[in-house]
Amino acid sequence: MSERYFENREFTSLQLTDETIKYFEFIDCTFIDCTVEKCTLTKCRFSECTFVNCHITDLKFDGTEANYLAFENCVLSGVNWGLLTSSGGFSEPVNKLISCNLKYNFFTDINLKKFLFKGNDITYTTFADCNLSESNFEGCNLTDTEFFRCDIQKADFRKATGYKIDVITCNIKKAKFSAPEVYNLLASLDIKIE
Questions:
Q1: Alpha-carbon distance 89 to 77, whole Å?
Q2: Nearest of 122, 130, 89 to residue 105 by alpha carbon
């Protein structure tokens, strides 16, 4: 790719491994069946792009920003979403996840209010200092996914499994849970139940 600016373009079956990608801008682009592994993205910008059936693993970011990205049937591993916030802080890096598998991801200081996580596997992931109020995690596999200092007021965790919510630091007022998983909320209180 010798160009640096792409708008309304479709990229299919890109395979990038251990590469450094610098100074590229993608606006309203679609990526289909692409694999990006162990790459470094430096001073790049992704705005309102869609990723379908993509594998994105262990990326490093240096001055890269993302705004309103959508992912469908993607595998996203080792992504630190907090490093992709826009310079003005007016938009969030991701606005849609549909049937995705997220593993070892980090969401820090991101506004995901009313976000629809339902239908995704989100395992070994950390949410810290995020606004997740009124978000929907219903039925999600959240194995070893941890929540710290998050606002999860009115969030829906019914039939979700495996989550670890720090009830001391998170605001869980009026959040919805179902048994028996709701008992996991007691783990952070370090109490014994007989």
A1: 24
A2: 122
User: What CATH number is given for 1-99 in this structure?
Assistant: 2.160.20.80
Look up residue 187 and give its amino acid: A
Domain ranges of the chain: 1-99, 111-194
CATH topology agreement for domains 1-99 and 111-194:
yes
Q: Which residues contact 2 (CB under 8 A, 6 or more apart)?
A: none
CATH topology of domain 111-194: Pectate Lyase C-like (2.160.20)
pLDDT at 138: 95
| 119-143: pLDDT as tens digits | 999 999 999 999 999 999 999 999 9
- CA-nearest of 143, 146, 153, 150 to 177 is 153
Q: Residue 15's CB: how many other CB atoms inside 10 A?
A: 11
